[in-house]
Design brief:
It is built from no helices and eleven strands. 0% of the residues lie in helices and 63% in strands.
């Protein structure tokens, strides 16, 4: 079984910073593309940023200039450093990953989600 576990969310004041982490664990052969999404109340889940295994990054408009995505392949971990946070960044942040796992000596590709971590930006 493969799972993603996020951490690092919390309450922060406007203008503050947070660092989210997401660790992939289980029977993992390889972790490929990883990404962060968020979902605010009453809104659809949206992509924030993504990173390939070779650390090529993509940012959406909500993240450009304020957020930085990075990863540690040795630890199967992806990070999201968020700064200059605004009230509109309040959301549940989800980690997503394309994972190769071994099942009965065969490699299977899975797309999996974490359980989410709440980020609240408020004074």
């Amino acid at each position: 079984q493969v799972q993603l576990v996020e951490s690092g969310g919390g309450l922060v004041q406007p203008g503050g910073s947070l660092r989210l982490s997401c660790v992939a664990s289980g029977s993992i052969f390889s972790v490929n593309d990883m990404g962060w999404y968020r979902q605010a109340p009453g809104k659809q889940r949206e992509l924030v940023a993504s990173i390939t295994r070779r650390e090529s990054t993509t940012y959406t408009e909500v993240a450009k200039g304020r957020f930085t995505i990075s990863r540690d392949n040795a630890k199967n971990t992806v990070y999201l450093q968020m700064s200059s946070l605004k009230a509109e960044d309040t959301a549940v942040y989800y980690c997503n990953a394309d994972v190769q796992t071994m099942i009965r000596d065969q490699i299977h590709e899975l797309n999996i989600w974490g359980q989410g971590t709440q980020v609240t930006v408020s004074s």
